[in-house]
Amino acid sequence: MELIANLINRAGFPEILPTHEAAPLINRSPQTLRKWACLENGPIRPIRIHGRLAWRVADIQKLLAGGAT
Fold first, then answer.
1. In this predicted model, which residue has the larger pLDDT, 37 or 69?
2. Which residue in 33, 44, 45, 64 is deepest, having the highest Cβ count within 10 Å?
3. Domain assignment of residue 36, given as a range
4. What is the pTM of this model?
């Protein structure tokens, strides 16, 4: 959870992460997150920004705490 707190404090869009940064936080490969987005069957859903996937930090925190959105 400390790693996530550090990411929240970074510059830019602290409430979202790109796939390559979100995947290691939940111990999954980036391709797994892309598959969740494509099939819409994962425990968390991304948002799309100009065709790119972004993952909400709040959703990642909920997932790590034992829940999902």
1. 37
2. 33
3. 2-64
4. 0.77
Give the tens place of pLDDT for each residue, 23-65.
Answer: 999 999 999 999 999 999 999 999 999 999 999 999 999 999 9
The three-state secondary structure class of 53 is: strand
CA distances from 12 to 17, 42, 60, 64 (A): 10, 26, 18, 23
> Can you tell me the distance from the alpha carbon of 33 to that of 66, in angstroms, rounded to the nearest whole number?
18
Which tokens is 63 given?
Answer: 């997932």
What's the CATH number where 38 sits? 1.10.1660
Q: How many H helices and E strands in the chain?
A: 4, 3
For residue 31, give both structure tokens.
């391709």
